[in-house]
Amino acid sequence: MIKKTKVIILIIMTLCCVGFSYLSLEVFEYPSYFPKPIYDLVGKPLSKQKIELGKKIFYDPILSADNSVSCASCHSSYNAFAHTDHDLSHGINDQIGTRNAPPLFNLAWQSSFMWDGAINHLDFQPLAPISSPLEMGSNIGSVVKKLNQHPYYPKLFYEAFKDSIITGEQVLIALSQFQITLLSVNSKYDAIRQGVDVFSEQEKKGYHLFLEHCNSCHKEPLFFENKYENNGLKVDTFLNDFGRWNITKVSRDSLKFKIPSLRNLSYTKPYMHDGRFNSLNKVLNHYSNEAVLYNNLAPSLKKGITLSAEDKVDLIAFLLTLNDQKFTLNKKHKNPNIYP
Amino acid sequence: MKKHICLLILIISAFSTSAQVSTVSLNFNSLVNNKDILELEKPYYFKSIQDSLQVDVLKFYISDVKFIMDETILASVHKKHFLINFENVLSKRIKTQISDTLKFNKIRFNIGIDSITNVSGVYGQDLDPTNGMYWTWNSGYINCKLEGSSNKFKTRKNRYAFHLGGYMSPFISMQTITLEVTQNKEIEILINIDDFFSNLDVTRYHTILSPNRKAVVVSKHFSTVFYVEE
Predict the structure, then answer these.
(1) pTM of the model
(2) Most buried in the list A47, A309, A329, B63, measured by CB within 10 Å?
(3) Residue of A73, A75, A79, A98 lying closest to A88 (CA atoms)
């Protein structure tokens, strides 16, 4: 028993050390098999003060009109920063939004944001929830005003930006910097890529099925692509959400949604933009029997995907190797008011 | 002795620089009926539209200001983007230093924000999103906001609202215009609000709040009502 606690303390201490040196170095480290990040880290280099400030803001309901909702209300670290158990997210006054809150990680590789790609840069993303009457019901102008009048934020902003007044630009950059550090790179799959672990027989079979049927869209090692596809989900006639079409108004974009990451699926259910599936089984049933043959259904899905009951089990076993518990348990990302 | 020489050099250099560059200001204003300077939230009777009309908001971005002689670009203003906001007198004046040896007869600028700036993340000052010139639910700067009311508009409360923007094809709404000017320390750039409203089909164009075809049409129209007072 004593041994066990000692080991745990040791692990926590090393975790803290790793976290600390990582921050103070302010370098953005990622696995060698990842592509180059898209977010411009040269133009906007990470700093410990900005990251910490961004984290404080992320967890602070000061961003919402009535100080009731923070970013973390819908993006919980335990769920890889998704909103679990809710198909549609909910905001101030318990209003229900129109989409499922996606998880947040590896955002430096994303070139567009939201299910329909409405946002073209991570920096600008917070303007959407802050301003949405269904989410935080405020606006960046009043947020900046509140922060400038706050007892401790002006000091923190000064330390991070060396500027005597808080601006909208600074708030957005701090939030980006914190979110950029949400890296999920420690799944079993990653250990295998680094040569320190191996797939079980079942996982290996699943990996081959994945490469055959899924990798064209959910491309490894990130398991997402900065593209939109129609994956054959029947339109929800209550929400009537046409995805990418909402932005481009071109018919070929109808019902196309961003190709999401398949990392951390165990923590992020329910699945799809409207959270319609609450299990991976249902997702696989969709891909193998239920995809609707829309005109613009992705070509790779038009020919149909055949998966036996056994294949499904194998494929799910592989998908579970993409879970990254080190990420969901990482104290470095948690509420600084609880974990100072 | 040494001290004196230094001082002398300082004085000479001060004189020589002041002889070489001078400040040029571009002043943005709008005249009603070709005479009154437009004030916000004040109704005016416009002869051209034979009705009264008021402007509550007039804000737009001016970017990439260049001084030109015939077809040759001589100089560009270092600061790239300016938010001209009629609510704030100081913002209506763009000041820049230009060498006296440069003789120009035209100025060129964009009304709005270019595509590259639009996709490069957040900036501060005139581009800070707290200026209310950024869309929240769909990325992009609002190049121009013009809002107010007039009985001409058969809308709710007779309001009109133009939030013009869009940086992605086919709805690119930034406009580039070139105006002939006489070289001067003060250049008065006027926006002919009479022309804007009298040449606008107000039954079709009254409320534009997102990037679309109408926004492009009205942006082009808006760019034609800029002129220089001689």
Answers:
(1) 0.85
(2) B63
(3) A98
